């Protein structure tokens, strides 16, 4: 027992233990030395303690959650945010040129010094997404899945992605997330069984990119058909309202530019509620970019105004005093200002549509009303309601009894499906009702 060491004895932390280990090695039998330096043992020791420089990219990518950041290497990974955000970052194998720490978090718009500029009818469909490292480049496309709460109303609206590389200026992110590119990323990152189990509710937008900007913004807007049109001319038609068309003759443009065409239908119920059954309106048609003057007039075709009371529609001919053409040339973030330009614009009636020419890109609207003097006033009132951005939301009601004759109710308007993340569950409130 005396030969055993005493744990209570003080330890000399200044002693160099390397000398002791060297002395132990010198006193070891030669056979032991030969055994430890044999190639077999060296290989085992390396695989046990060594960290290889080359990572086995044949291994499946990591599928874990993250709070704000995570590490990614040549193996790739599919990481989902843990804070109820639902954001998922998918980096396929061989896309990261070197190990890097990826940061991804939500920000409120008011936290930015330069928030994205939004035009009328546009709104954020989720919070701003901050990414890092800013400017990081990948060897191929990576994908970011972001849940949104914008209501697309079938095909009437769409989701577009804005990006800011420097935190000050914003532009549209033009990387097209086509189905082939999305499937290629999913096939490289998930097994077949996992792909079939992926939840695709339609409330998630997929962003494909080969580099990281500072911010991404998910924006909902009226669907816009975009075509590149040059001096040779061309035609753009709406997929929302197929009768809406814009025809550019040869020479209307001096160089090739991207031309956008929007058609926003106005429900007859809304028009009747605000203006009565004796007023009918057409879809609101917008030619982008606005406030541009064409070298030759372009021809716009818009359906005739429709009303809830079908019997009040006029059989238009060459003279239609109740049909008014309203125009707003304001653009950008400026509110629309409607003017009656009927007197200076001849109409052509073809089937159920009205055609006219214009030399300026603007926002146009047809209205059929008896009191033509108030046409612009009524248009402004109806437009103010029609331009509101629709969102997907639900209401949840929580209740808690605090006395024999007293209870508390809390009503929430929620844009996601996470009722359990509220504090009411921790405060022993009970969910008593919710919308469908």
Automatic annotation (TrEMBL):
<keyword id="KW-0040">ANK repeat</keyword>
<dbReference type="GO" id="GO:0016020">
    <property type="term" value="C:membrane"/>
</dbReference>
<feature type="compositionally biased region" description="Basic and acidic residues">
    <location>
        <begin position="13"/>
        <end position="23"/>
    </location>
</feature>
<feature type="domain" description="ZU5">
    <location>
        <begin position="66"/>
        <end position="221"/>
    </location>
</feature>
<keyword id="KW-0677">Repeat</keyword>
<feature type="domain" description="ZU5">
    <location>
        <begin position="223"/>
        <end position="370"/>
    </location>
</feature>
<feature type="region of interest" description="Disordered">
    <location>
        <begin position="1"/>
        <end position="29"/>
    </location>
</feature>
<dbReference type="Pfam" id="PF17809">
    <property type="entry name" value="UPA_2"/>
</dbReference>
<dbReference type="Pfam" id="PF00791">
    <property type="entry name" value="ZU5"/>
</dbReference>
<dbReference type="GO" id="GO:0005737">
    <property type="term" value="C:cytoplasm"/>
</dbReference>
<keyword id="KW-0963">Cytoplasm</keyword>
<dbReference type="InterPro" id="IPR051165">
    <property type="entry name" value="Multifunctional_ANK_Repeat"/>
</dbReference>
<dbReference type="InterPro" id="IPR000906">
    <property type="entry name" value="ZU5_dom"/>
</dbReference>
<keyword id="KW-0472">Membrane</keyword>
<dbReference type="InterPro" id="IPR040745">
    <property type="entry name" value="Ankyrin_UPA"/>
</dbReference>
<protein>
    <recommendedName>
        <fullName>ZU5 domain-containing protein</fullName>
    </recommendedName>
</protein>
């Amino acid at each position: 027992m005396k030969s055993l060491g005493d744990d209570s004895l003080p330890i000399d932390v200044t002693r160099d233990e390397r000398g002791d280990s060297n002395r132990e090695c010198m006193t070891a039998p030669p056979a032991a030395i030969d055994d430890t330096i044999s190639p077999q043992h060296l290989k085992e020791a390396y695989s046990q303690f060594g960290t290889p420089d080359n990572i086995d990219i044949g291994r499946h990518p990591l599928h874990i959650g993250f709070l704000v950041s995570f590490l990614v290497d040549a193996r790739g990974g599919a990481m989902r945010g843990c804070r109820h955000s639902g954001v998922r970052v998918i980096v396929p194998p061989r896309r990261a040129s070197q190990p890097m720490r990826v940061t991804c978090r939500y920000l409120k718009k008011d936290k930015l010094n330069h928030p994205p500029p939004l035009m009328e009818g546009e709104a954020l469909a989720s919070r701003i997404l901050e990414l890092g490292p800013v400017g990081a480049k990948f060897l191929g496309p990576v994908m970011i899945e972001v849940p949104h709460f914008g209501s697309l109303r079938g095909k009437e609206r769409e989701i577009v992605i804005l990006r800011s590389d420097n935190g000050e200026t914003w532009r549209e992110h033009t990387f097209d997330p086509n189905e082939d590119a999305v499937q290629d990323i999913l096939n490289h990152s998930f097994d077949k069984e996992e792909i079939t189990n992926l939840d695709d509710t339609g409330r998630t937008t997929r962003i494909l990119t080969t580099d990281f900007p500072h911010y991404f913004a998910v924006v909902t807007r009226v669907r816009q058909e975009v075509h590149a049109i040059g001096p040779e001319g061309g035609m753009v038609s709406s997929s929302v309202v197929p009768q809406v068309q814009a025809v550019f003759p040869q020479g209307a443009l001096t160089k090739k530019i991207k031309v956008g065409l929007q058609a926003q239908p106005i429900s007859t119920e809304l028009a009747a509620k605000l203006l009565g059954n004796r007023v009918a309106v057409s879809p609101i048609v917008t030619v982008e970019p606005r406030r541009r003057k064409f070298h030759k007039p372009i021809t716009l075709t818009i359906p005739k105004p429709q009303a809830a009371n079908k019997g009040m529609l006029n059989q238009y001919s060459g003279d239609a005093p109740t049909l008014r053409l309203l125009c707003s040339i304001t653009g950008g973030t400026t509110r629309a200002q409607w003017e009656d330009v009927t007197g200076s614009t001849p109409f052509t009636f073809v089937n159920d549509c009205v055609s006219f020419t214009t030399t300026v890109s603007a926002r146009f609207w047809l209205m059929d009303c008896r009191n033509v003097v108030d046409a612009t006033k009524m248009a402004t009132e109806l437009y103010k309601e029609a331009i509101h951005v629709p969102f997907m939301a639900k209401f949840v009601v929580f209740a808690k009894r605090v006395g024999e004759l007293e209870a508390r109710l809390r009503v929430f308007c929620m844009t996601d499906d996470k009722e359990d993340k509220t504090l009411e569950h921790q405060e022993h409130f009970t969910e008593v009702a919710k919308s469908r």
